[in-house]
Amino acid sequence: LHYALIKVGTPALSFLVALDTRSDLFWLPCDCTNCARNFNFTDGSRFELETYSPSNSTTSKPPTRGCSTTLNVCSYQIINGNISSTGILVDDILHLGTESNPQDIVDVSITLGCAKNLSGSFLNTNGGINGVFGLGMDSISVPSILADKGVVANSFSMCFGSGEIGRIEFGDKGIRNKKQLPLIFNNHSKQQVINPMLFLRPTYNITVTKIGVGNNVTDLEFTANFDSSVAYTHITDPAYSFIVNNGGKAYCLAIVKSKSVNVIGREYSNRLLNCLLAFHHFNADFVSSTFDINNVEFFPENFMEGYRIVFDREEMVLGWK
């Protein structure tokens, strides 16, 4: 996962949230007793995690639409495999910054989930998260709300650095000479969202038209999803067999490490072999049951390293540079 340190509420509190392109709702741990309290980084340092409380924020209020008028509350439930987040929806201020120097602060009222109950890996103190920053295509997601309010264009970019440092920029439509592919509508989702105002929406899917392994190229067309929340690339047959059969022993990284493997969609290419081989170490039944893949291919965040990926929802294209 890639994380961002964001500020929410008044007074502003900082939260270390996971950037998730397949989630729509932005939610934070809220008045919960079993939430993760610390995040342990790989270098041994520890980051203390905050807990959001609507009663402690002077700008928090019930959502203005989509909720029960009789109960004056809007509940939500997100189920993702063996993990879940349940609570209520609230409106509060998200504090953003511009690229200008000195930086201007932009405060935007946004709807977020107040997660009162969490389960599964959300509670893991070594990798437990301080919330999920929903970047999906539904109207409840952060990019959609910012665009709907006229704050920025309906597009955003994520730059995945190789040194564990990245950047997310709202309103970014990329540069003119960027490469791009059309996004296609596909209603596969690994989440079940139980709420009248939240629907299963299309995710960021593209069509891959060719696969090249060294000098061997085949026209195996398939749909792939760009998912910043998945750690390993998932490729099913016949594409997977083609790569393994032409790329050496799938269980031995050292033997085939020098061989180049490319996945091509129009002019797009990227090194894929190490991701595939790392995935091959995992039990396929476990992965399928956890992510509910159903033969959908996933290109995860490590596949995007070294690229500035543009999710342009106005033009419905995925761009990169």
Automatic annotation (TrEMBL):
Occurrences of domain Peptidase A1 (ranges): 2-321
Pfam families: TAXi_N
GO biological process: proteolysis
InterPro entries: Aspartic_peptidase_A1 (IPR001461), Pepsin-like_dom (IPR034164), PEPTIDASE_A1 (IPR033121), Peptidase_aspartic_dom_sf (IPR021109), TAXi_N (IPR032861)
Catalytic residues (positions): 20, 227
Similarity-based family: Belongs to the peptidase A1 family.
Name of protein: Peptidase A1 domain-containing protein
